[in-house]
Amino acid sequence: MTPAEALARRRVLWMNALFAAGLAFALPWFAAGLLAHRWDPARGTLWATHHAYGVRTFWFGVIGLLAPVAVPEIGVGLLVVVWLWCAVRLGRAFLAWDRAEWIMDPGRFV
């Protein structure tokens, strides 16, 4: 593994760890989203898919967090569904990171 790939792998680990902490507290979620957008997505390596996956997870989580404000009748139920959905995506991201493999089709919902 080249030093650039090792750095990209470490960045993805930090991003995933912050997303995981963000499931309990909102601030780390936003920090992870900022890092996913700011860090170079390591174009041409398998870590590029991890960055794209992290960006999508961030935005879907934010939209899911704000949706109950728009539709308060289903607020708590929607928050639970979005939280579980984000937890599943994070589990998938950690497994792909551990195996050092691509996250196939980061454009999918799950």
From TrEMBL:
Q: Which UniProt keywords apply?
A: Membrane, Transmembrane, Transmembrane helix
Give the transmembrane ranges: 12-37, 57-85
- Domain of life assignment: Bacteria
Q: What is this protein called?
A: DUF4870 domain-containing protein
